[in-house]
Amino acid sequence: MHVCALVGASGTGKSHRSLWVAKEHNIEYVIDDGLLIKGNSVLAGRSAKAEKTRVAAIKTAVLTEDAHAFELRSALKENKAESVLILGTSDAMVQKIAARLGLGEINETIYIQDVSSPYEIQQALNTRRMEGKHVVPVPTLELKKNFSGVMLDPLNILRRRGAGSFETMGEKSVIRPTYSYLGRFTISDYTIYQLAEHAARENAAVSRITRFRADKAEDGIRIEMDIVLYYGYRIPEVFAELRRQIAGEIEKYTALNSVAVILTAKNIIVKKAGKPEPEAARNAEDPDAANIIAPANGG
After folding, report:
1. DSSP 119-173
2. 2-131 in CATH: which number?
3. Domain 189-290: assigned CATH number
4. Which residues lie below 8 Å from residue 284, measured CB to CB, with a gap of 6+?
5. pLDDT tens digit sequence for 234-290
6. What is the pTM of this model?
């Protein structure tokens, strides 16, 4: 299968442009925010924009649930799809969706700035930020069955063919999801730390975390941690498992993509048989403990 991606930041007009891009590249199938779309019909899946919270919307968009991914994968196979266009906010996101569907590597990536002018992108961003409007590239009747939110106006998409002549490319729905009018949603660094700490403490080789840093970027989150380990474990194996545990915990509860988990072993200590270290003693004996981040405001 030929796999094409349309990548752009949230609110830049990807869904609005998707049918045009699909038409220009002779692609019949589009995957947008958890839906498998062909023409004006939803073949499988559920819309992330139907979710009531932003975290749930992100998890739906990247097909976190196995049953959701299986439904889309089965529909593609059943329809003998030869090409598909995947929409996403980053290269990492579209690659993750392709992987969840077993589609392999992305063959071609188109960026929103390749198909929209800076003015059009800015207009789309203003509409998203000021009015909370989203576009779903299917008719309103296709969404009303299980949509949670406010339905706004349907939108016919036209393409100029010549002087005074236009071709109808499809109908789209302008909607306002529930989560877009419930206020701003943020995740504090301290929340990320608590999730990482929980994952680390599940690992028998870890004594404590002495330093933690989280840097957020457009394509996900980058984590750095200094760790004190117990003697008797192979560090490369411990770190490989720990990276998987931390990335999995953060993705499960926040839907953030972990682009890097950088671990450093700062010390190795001997575990006292049958006597766990008290929390206060652990922090007091380690001068680096003060480097762990303090709780952030909000979020």
Report:
1. HHHHHHHHHHHHH--EEESS-GGGTTTS--EEEEEEEEEEEEEETTEEEEEEEEE
2. 3.40.50
3. 3.30.70.1350
4. none
5. 999 999 999 989 988 887 777 677 788 999 999 999 987 664 554 434 444 444 444
6. 0.54
